[in-house]
Fold this protein.
Amino acid sequence: MSDEIIPPVDGTPPVEAPPVEDAGGLPSGQPDPELIGGKFKDTQAMLDHIKELEDKNANSRRELADKEKADAANNDANTANITKVQAQNQVLNDMIPDFMDNGMTVTPEMEAKAVEAGIDVRDLQINAYKFKERLTTAFEITGGREQYEGMIEWAKTNLNDTQKVALEKSAQQGMSELAIEGLWARFEKAQANNPDAPRISGQPAPSGLQPYADRRSLYKDKDYIETAAGRRDEAAIKMYRARLKITPNSVLGI
């Protein structure tokens, strides 16, 4: 029996059984005194083991360094690509007004400028048509070019710095219809609350109207007036815009 304790007899203290020797003649779990460190048969075996560990560590460090280098290269490439796209978008935005003023026709000068910036001329044409569609929608919402430009000028002087940056970015990318409606409602409300401000168009919402309590009800009416039947429903459109004007900014997300 291994490690058996012999019970005491006649009050004598217990005697521990001697350790059981393994097949090699050594107590179980004890290192072989003839091995270096109890593991290696000679110095060379120990050195070989140390070198193996060092090689593994060196390989791990090399793989980590290669990964960090590859990640840095990818980050640099992504940054360069983003910078290039931003520069191209700026060139496109700068050329769009001239393109539209020229009857949506590309001049040799525009083409040369586009090629220099690495822009496909077709992108200029597509973006210009999209921009024209967005402007048409904006004019329809605000009642015309003069009203739209008046709203933008008001926003430039009445919004805070964060909102101005967001507005400029949104204008470059094309403001969504809801964003235009929200800004127009805010502009109209500001005009209504300031009797000395020159009114461009519209009147304060008549009494009795209820503002939208949440976006769900707002979107429900908005979705309707965008249908074929809704576009012909002038009463619904007027009611929608009147309620929108008195809806809190928190609901509009402004």
